Amino acid sequence: MTASNTRLAGVACGLGAGALWGLVFLAPKAAPDASPMMMSAGRYLAYGLIAAVLLAPRWKQVRPHLDASAWRGLIWLSLAGNIVYYLFLVVAVHFAGVAASALIVGMVPVAVAVWGLRDPDAPPLSKSAPPILLAAAAVALIGWEAFSGGGAGHGGDVTPNAPGGGLAMTLIGLACAFAALISWSIYAIGNSRWMGRLPQVSAHDWSLLTGVTTGALALVLAIPAALRDLPDDADQWTRLVGVSLGVAVFASILGNALWNQASRLLPLSMLGQMIVFETLFAFVYGYLWEGRGPTLLEIAAMAMMVVSVLWCVRAHRPAAVAAAEGDH
Length: 328
Known about the structure:
Mean pLDDT: 80
Order of helices and strands: HHHHHHHHHHHHHHH
Strand content: under 5%
Radius of gyration: 20 Å
Distance between the termini: 29 Å
Structural class: mainly alpha
């Protein structure tokens, strides 16, 4: 596979992962009665069980490639990228709304891409900075639209005077969104490094190993959740189980497998830009859920996001990188 085709395949995997991950922003809305702890425990117990079943036939081939350090890496990646991130995200969506949560987590591409500029295979700053800044501007534009009340469905959840909310709850939600941003940025960077260290473990197997580890950690979370936050009736149980299984299969199993494949195919400075697709799809799903269309500013912001990704792809073309390095 040529370098250009490798980049294209990586972008396709990143787009697919973003489309599936965007579903997690709707999960708290689909099961509003479930507590953040119960939702996180339910999703990751389901993820762990499904991953264990899928990994079992390949366990003898995978096990020799894992040492103690790899297991430690899986534990902290499972915490940062799954359990801790999702707990913060669910609280953020409950208290600050889909829009605010999506736009803040949408800054992950900027954080990861900036960190990735340290890598030896990254293009020079003169080539990488413009698409990164464009992505940041797109997120800022969506944020301004949401907080100004222009996006009727999204913005209404994040204003200080939202029904049943208040400034304190909004601030808690925003703080949790920023915590989710930090947690997922740490995961994205660390996961890319670990994928590079263990090329003998396939992207799909690494995703399943992460799932098994996350499921084991979720057992610890499930105990206090079960003692405090069990659903009250059959309807709440049905929604919780349905949402947990749906998010586990589509976002965790399939989405993580696509993301790990993208991590193998793309340099870190380019990989960060792929997370833009999660924000993009989160807004699209939000519009469908709320039964409204995007405003003109939101359309402009989403167009800027797409352009930033295409620009980043172009900046990482081997010919473009070689030419830029020749200028220096």
